[in-house]
Amino acid sequence: MKPRVHHVGVVVASLERTGAFVRDVMGLDLALEPPPLPDGVMTAFYSPDGARVELIEIPDAQAPAKRLGDNDARVEHIALEVDDVHAWMDRLRAQGVRFTTDEPVRVRENEAVWTLPETSAGIVWQLFSRAR
Q1: Hey, do 1-71 and 76-132 end up sharing a CATH topology, with the first three levels equal?
Q2: CATH architecture under which domain 1-71 falls
Q3: CB pairs under 8 A, 24+ apart, for 79-86?
Q4: pLDDT tens, position by position, 50-59
Q5: What are 48-83's pLDDT values in tens digits?
Q6: What is the reported pTM?
Q7: What is the model's pLDDT at position 19?
Q8: Suppose 15 and one of 57, 81, 100, 103 were both cysteines; which one would form an S-S bond, judging by CB atoms 3.0 to 4.6 Å apart?
Q9: Integer Cα distance of 92 and 105 in angstroms
Q10: Quick one: 76-132 is in which CATH superfamily?
Q11: What ranges do the domains of the chain cover?
């Protein structure tokens, strides 16, 4: 059995704000929102029918500053395979999202694009689909 991505953990400044973006703009459903951990850490798991994205909010004011710096969230990127990267770019642009390039770039057999984190809730989203 080959390994599979289970989830990507993302430390966020606001579970509510980032969760709203993940749900309302990226279209991922909330799969699980367990009760807070004993130390007050809150998590929410969003799933696009497979690998999950875990958002983590840490209540201790000093801990997020150490892990996030001046950022709202910290992760390198989250990759999502989509049916049509061009259509997704149009959909996200309508929501105010901007990208690192005007058009997708060819990466092996895929076309890929990355969002600018300041326009996508502090997270770099890589969207890719098979090249046309």
Answers
A1: yes
A2: Roll (3.10)
A3: 79/125, 79/126, 79/127, 79/128, 80/26, 80/48, 80/125, 80/126, 80/127, 80/128, 81/128, 81/129, 82/127, 82/128, 82/129, 83/129, 84/129, 85/111, 85/112, 85/113, 85/127, 85/128, 85/129, 86/111
A4: 788 889 888 8
A5: 677 888 898 888 767 666 777 777 767 768 888 888
A6: 0.68
A7: 95
A8: 57
A9: 17
A10: 2,3-Dihydroxybiphenyl 1,2-Dioxygenase, domain 1 (3.10.180.10)
A11: 1-71, 76-132
Is residue 43's pLDDT more than 80?
yes
Which amino acid makes up residue 90?
A: D
Q: What is the pLDDT of residue 1?
A: 30
Tokens 């992760």 appear where? 75
Strand partners, 79: 126
Q: Which residue has the tokens 């749900």?
A: 23
